[in-house]
Amino acid sequence: MQRTMLNVMIRWCGAAGATALPGAAFAATDVALLPRNLSPWNMFLNADIVVQTVMVGLAFASLVTWTVWLAKTIEIRRKTATARRRLSMLETDTVLAKAEQESRGGHDAVAQIILSAAREASLSGGHVDDGLKERVALRLERVEAAMSRQIARGTGVLATIGATAPFVGLFGTVWGIMNSFIGISEAKTTNLAVVAPGIAEALLATALGLVAAIPAVVIYNHLTRTIAAHRALLGDASAMVLLLISREGDRGPFRLARAAE
Predict the structure, then answer these.
(1) 157/62 Cα distance (integer angstroms)
(2) What does the pLDDT read at residue 155?
(3) Contact criterion met (CB below 8 Å) for 253 and 104
(4) pLDDT by residue (tens digit) across 34-56?
């Protein structure tokens, strides 16, 4: 009797184990299919070639953003310091001939403003009238516009990156999710091992798009403000030069150092 009951229990345990075996096998398969590491680098390596291209492009755009920020910050600070130094010279009790002599060889914006005004005054023979003031004002306006375009060069790429990077990242996301659905259809299963990696790679593309776009917009706005401040300095320099010419005109005809050459 005891031997019969033992045999029944063994058979029952065997049947229960056989019934539970497929579930255990599927669980082991799911664990095996799950990626061991979902770090950003591994997600990039395992991504589709299109998603990888999107990620590389966004990383390059981010590198361009920070390069432009560093280069333009150094340039604007250097030119602003030079402009302030020449403005301090114009605000002293000086004359146009002396200002021209001190600005010779200078390639900064204020030096070009002074040299352009001196050139027009020299062509006019040193006689100050309303016509001279108008001609000098036109020259200074052209110099200001040229120097403003020069200092703003390179900032347009920041606006482009800030406007397009989120959409490029979104394209990578859509492509990655589409591949995830294709994988689900081919595997005929919706378990986490099939769905998770593709969706994670897709979301990584969106994250990189935001990482590239947000700094580009912030840096563009910052550079726009600093360039506007630099343009205001150029406007002040032009006004100081016109005041200098008007002041000397009240004293009578003046001579320029250029005319003595």
Answers:
(1) 11
(2) 92
(3) no
(4) 455 667 677 777 777 888 889 89
Q: CA–CA distance from 33 to each of 141, 163, 186, 188, 219 (Å)?
A: 69, 38, 15, 14, 43
- The string of pLDDT tens digits covering residues 86-118 is 988 888 877 888 888 888 888 888 889 988 888
CA gap 152, 172 in Å, rounded? 32
Report angle CA 71, 72, 78 to the nearest 5 degrees: 95
Number of C-beta neighbours around residue 213 at 10 A: 23
Strand locations in 46-101, DSSP E?
none
Task: Write down the pTM of the prediction.
Answer: 0.74
Contacts of 145 (CB under 8 A, 6+ apart): none
Distance CA 198, CA 47 (A): 7
Domain residue spans of the chain: 1-33, 39-260
Length of the chain: 261
Phi then psi dihedrals of residue 34, to 5 deg: -65, 135
